[in-house]
Amino acid sequence: MTFRARHLLGIEHLAPDEIRTVLDLAESYVELNQRTVKRSDALAGMTQINMFFENSTRTQASFELAGKRLGADVMNMSVAHSSVKKGETLIDTALTLNAMHPDLLVVRHPASGAVDLLAQKVNCAVLNAGDGRHEHPTQALLDALTIRRAKGRIQRLTVAICGDIAHSRVARSNLILLGKMENRIRLIGPPTLMPSGVADLGCEVYDDMREGLLDADVVMMLRLQKERMDGGFIPSEREYYHRFGLDAEKLGFAKEDAIVMHPGPMNRGVEIDGELADDINRSVIQDQVEMGVAVRMACMDLLARNLRAERGRQAAGVMV
């Protein structure tokens, strides 16, 4: 299997064959997670520290479960009660963690680039669980696995990403990954929620849901990230749902077998109709949650292999 990365900081530096390696290994972990005994020793003897500077339910629980199922010793660091709240810098936090000799460090941070800075200061493998508006690589990988299992491929599909594009690291990571895998990507949303320079991203841009969803294979809805908004980006939630919320009528413009996705948490009746979100014939939202654990297991497994190999080379060099 081909996977050369020392850290997983984003999708941008992954080659298509590395993406396929993650998805293929994750398939085996999907099968393991459906067994009665869900255990592997891939991370036996290794320590995983989860540091979430932003609130998280799905991602943090998914990483914790993934590490434990792989046999790692998992510690969740409570940032709310840590020295960070007392004024400690991110670099000092990194140096403190490094002195504990962890093997895997999972980090979510509100500032873009913060996870990359941490990775430069520690001797372990670092996984980006979301940094600001930059990237959320494991979300894009689990979305890719969900799409591949539902559609039978991850190439040459028409994928519509709808909603708050400007504030979404999920959208950015999916744009990069789906672009690498030769898909046709459409961004749909109000102009106020489109990032600057969107025309240079190699995708089509629409401000009309019906036009943008026409003949789409995949409809990926995004959460309105009100916590990242500092102004009047939308007239009202009611108006937003009328124009950009996904309901059965708008979905009717996509292909009959189009799948509906959402990274969660959902604002029902704002971004998506509740009945549609629960429609087992169209929605793969719960599948995304299931795939999240398997993908994160695969990512940590692959990074641990590279870390062990690197440490082996260093030990051999010292011995020589």
Order of helices and strands: HEHEHEHEHEHEEHEHHEHH
How big is the Rg? 20 Å
Euclidean distance between termini CA atoms: 29 Å
Main sheet, how many strands, which sense, barrel? 5 strands, parallel
Which structural class best describes the helix and strand composition? alpha/beta
What spatial form do the alpha-carbon principal axes imply?
globular
Oligomer: single chain
Going across the major beta sheet, what is the strand order?
Answer: 7-6-5-8-9
Helix content: 40-55%
Beta-strand segment tally: 9
Low-confidence stretches: none
Describe this structure in words.
With 320 residues, the chain is an alpha/beta fold. The chain has helices spanning 16-33, 58-69, 90-99, 114-119, 137-151, 169-180, 209-213, 237-244, 248-251, 274-277, 285-319, and strands at residues 47-52, 73-77, 104-109, 125-131, 158-162, 184-188, 204-206, 218-221, 259-261. It has a 5-stranded parallel β-sheet. A 4-stranded parallel β-sheet has the order 2-1-3-4. Helix 6 (169-180) links the parallel strand 5 (158-162) and strand 6. Helix 1 (16-33) crosses helix 5. It is globular and about 65 Å long. The model has no long low-confidence stretch (mean pLDDT 92).
